[in-house]
Amino acid sequence: MKIVIVLPHLEDFSPTAAGAISLVVQRICVALPGATVLGTPRAVTFPGIPYEGVKGAWDIIRAVRRLRPSVIEVHQRPRLALVLAYLFPAARVLLFLHNDPVQMRGLKTWLGRRWTAARLHRVVCVSQYLATRFGASAVVLPNPLTLSALPPRAAVREPTILYAGRITVDKGPDAFTAACAEALPHLPGWRAVMIGGDRFGPSSPETPFVARIRAAAAAAGIDFRGPRPHAEVLEAMAKAAIVVVPSRWAEPFGLTALEAMASGAALITTRQGGLPEVAGNAALYADPGNLAATLLHLAQNPTARAALAEAGVKRAAMFDTAVIAGRLEGLRSSTI
Q: Is 202 left (phi over 0), alpha (psi -120 to 50) or beta?
């Protein structure tokens, strides 16, 4: 099959600045080679993956007409998916949703979601939480993680509590700094580290909220490193004893939580959105406003940390790219 994958508008498809969607697409393209990715023109993209820069919908339509794919996979752009399905009726058009469909143009109403699902080959959601929100014949395909590509897990974990993610209100970095400010004085030998910025990549701006978190981290004795390449995030996870994902909002999936489990860290997270689907029984759950007690308990209990780490590694195997890619091949080829 000839496959074309259309990224969201302005999504960066490069090793240094890729967000969650681009990382997912990159993993799938490595596991199932041959697809051409269409996205915003970039000077640097993931090596070895056919990529064409497009500046708008007309460029995408022209590229699809020239490439003549049998399958078109559109991420996060429901109206474009409908246009492509109309213009190229011989192709199977799949719409991949990584965020709440109820907040997306064209999908805000039940009628709009049902009408969209009826005209596409598949609507694919990255979690059951999103599929339930969509509510009209969506299928679930979790985000993949290539376990064999992760850095080696440290045999002896560093006494580090790690936050890795965007520095925005919804992600709860202020809850993390507050919890560390309370817990660290009672944890001699432990340290806390924060990696992230308002956006992915080195050009992430210093917003007022980022500045506020940076100051709070300094006051709490937290090592605030700012936005770093994804490879550095994974290296930090492979060494840290504890990773905290304190999201306040309904996470559509929870890729950071999956990466933490696969890296062998003990995970603390919340029950927002799809996070419980990812973490299952391989995490401790806490309210974002009451993290300190859970941090103290886990940091002071090496047996509990070891048990969570072992459970996390086992659970992460369910999301290995080879497993998810096999399921995607079925969706691409199915005529039902």
A: alpha
Domain 148-319 sits in CATH at 3.40.50.2000
pTM: 0.92
44-71 residue pLDDT tens: 999 999 999 999 999 999 999 999 999 9
Q: Which residues of 206-218 are buried (b: 16+ CB within 10 A; e: fewer)?
A: eeeebeebbebbe
φ/ψ (deg, to 5) at 251: -60, 130
Q: In Å, what is the CA distance from 219 to each residue of 180, 181, 216?
A: 10, 8, 5
Q: Do domains 3-144+320-333 and 148-319 have the same CATH topology?
A: yes
Residue ranges of domains in the chain: 3-144+320-333, 148-319
- Say how far apart CA 26 and CA 33 lie, in whole Å: 10
CATH (residue range 3-144+320-333)? 3.40.50.2000
Closest listed residue to residue 101, CA positions, set 88, 116, 91: 116
